[in-house]
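To assess whether the prediction recovers the assembly geometry, we first specified each molecular entity separately, as shown.
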Amino acid sequence: VTESVGSVLDVEDLRERVQKALEMFLDGQMPVLDAVSEDLAPVLQAGKDFLLDGGKRLRPAFAYWGWRGAGGEDTKQIVVAAAALELLHACALIHDDVMDASDTRRGRPSVHRRFESTHGRQGWHGDPAGFGLSAAILLGDMCLVWADQMLNTCGLPAEALLRGQAVYDRMRVELMAGQYLDVLEQAMGSQSVERSLRVARFKSAKYTVDGPLRLGAALAGGPGELLATYSAYGVPLGEAFQLRDDVLGVFGDPGTTGKPAGDDLREGKRTVLVATALDRAGEQQAALVRRLLGDRQLDDDGVAQLRAVIVDTGALDHVETLIADSTTEALCALEVGPVAEPARSVLRELASAATSRRL
Amino acid sequence: VTESVGSVLDVEDLRERVQKALEMFLDGQMPVLDAVSEDLAPVLQAGKDFLLDGGKRLRPAFAYWGWRGAGGEDTKQIVVAAAALELLHACALIHDDVMDASDTRRGRPSVHRRFESTHGRQGWHGDPAGFGLSAAILLGDMCLVWADQMLNTCGLPAEALLRGQAVYDRMRVELMAGQYLDVLEQAMGSQSVERSLRVARFKSAKYTVDGPLRLGAALAGGPGELLATYSAYGVPLGEAFQLRDDVLGVFGDPGTTGKPAGDDLREGKRTVLVATALDRAGEQQAALVRRLLGDRQLDDDGVAQLRAVIVDTGALDHVETLIADSTTEALCALEVGPVAEPARSVLRELASAATSRRL
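The predicted structure of the complete assembly is given in tokenized form:
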């Protein structure tokens, strides 16, 4: 019990240090952008608002504990390196919201909508939506570059950074690839459970847990055996985490998720949950899903009807079982691998925290 | 004369080596993407088509000669590192075309139009334009990541790469910042010559010449004095180069530019050339520019009318003078700086090649 309380404190403490590191980094960008033009202040502000509003900081946590599990000391450098992953994540989310035409993110206007509003308020020329789109693409690009810069300037030795870069670059390519597959699945209207799982794996799972853990280990110069353990723990856990997210996207409380209830249904997301429901649906149920899924105007009643199909087909139960099984697989891999304490204990807790029911 | 012919051959030879390096790198991505899904083949193909269709390879050339001018040897590693800049450039162009809603690039469909066509041909679900947009954002992101990966794996020592990263990261942030300013100027309908020059400086000039040169020098561990020389040469030359591009965008031959005649006028680009014309225009001329500039349907007659204003106001002559003066400034800085031969001679030639009239 004592150990558990201790690691929860560690996790909270780390979240604050990540927040501070991001603040310091972004504040350090102000003079750089100011030297170009004071007109860039709103761009930096949008970046700060997006990045500093909290969030779970899961990716930095996994990178940090990946480093600690490899025997790395608790240093300022690794916290800065780990925090850089939030900038990468910001790029992914900002561009994702453009692609999904999402109006909100974490209960606030998405970046493209924010700049669209600015355009409208200022009465500028041309299309406000086009301006919002451009600003969001560029802020996303900038976050991607800032992530590199934060990682490169974290203070770790050049050799360590080069080891980390190999993991980091691969992780990013897979992230972009997974996002493309997600877009493609929606265009193709695919209903395959297998294909949905693949999207989840590359778009989200690998870069949420496996990638960050291995980045931390690579920075610390951990052995191949440790990296293998991290993948054996990280890949299933990341999938469980993504499946939990899918469930929350349909059944989650808007107060917790920061998104309107059933928003994933309105967006027509081809999640494993939805694919499973379709796979098991009777004719009438399937017709209902095809009719309502992806309907931007879907009201509460429509959401309720879709939810009922997902429950009645057993898809929800099935996905909950998948989550539980994957989490168990992850935890078993963690126990047998060469992971230094206290990292092992914390990773055990993170696994539960990231996959438990939060409906 | 012999020296001049020698360096022209060097430049041609380098272009081929850059092409080969890009080919090898992109071919190396195939198994990585295949391991995710065979559905990614069209993404890689679009990247290859975009990157391997020639181009002037100016940025790699400046990076390579920046390295040589610092006394670096001619090695495979520096050619690979330099070639990575083409991937960064591809990201900038692909995203730029999305933001400008450009239909073509180098005489071929822009990336978002290419994927839009695929969507239409396949009869997929949803909005073809939305699919094209998403695919182009993601391919641009991927090019940005690939650029890092190519640089990180070029084979230069970790310490050299870390020195290079500092220059590279700054250059990329300024590029994104400049692109945002460009979008902002168009939204604000700004007519200021000074503001247009600032956009040109950050969006294009610094990352075409100054940044690549300093990247090469930093990789080679060149002294601060050399980096200062490169900026003194690179910043004015980059501006001259961008101004030449602006002139070509209005007066250029479509066969050379790969874009319809007067396309920059149709897009309403707020170039220094246009800003100068507006600055000097009489009332009638200004009214004509305000009416026609940015008209997507502008016909040949409209283009001719706008061109006439640009000539009659003396804006064209003025910009030609600016180009000549900036080029001279660049060449003078080159002569007095500590630049090793044959780099100095080649940089002298590149200055002429990049800024001479090609109407």
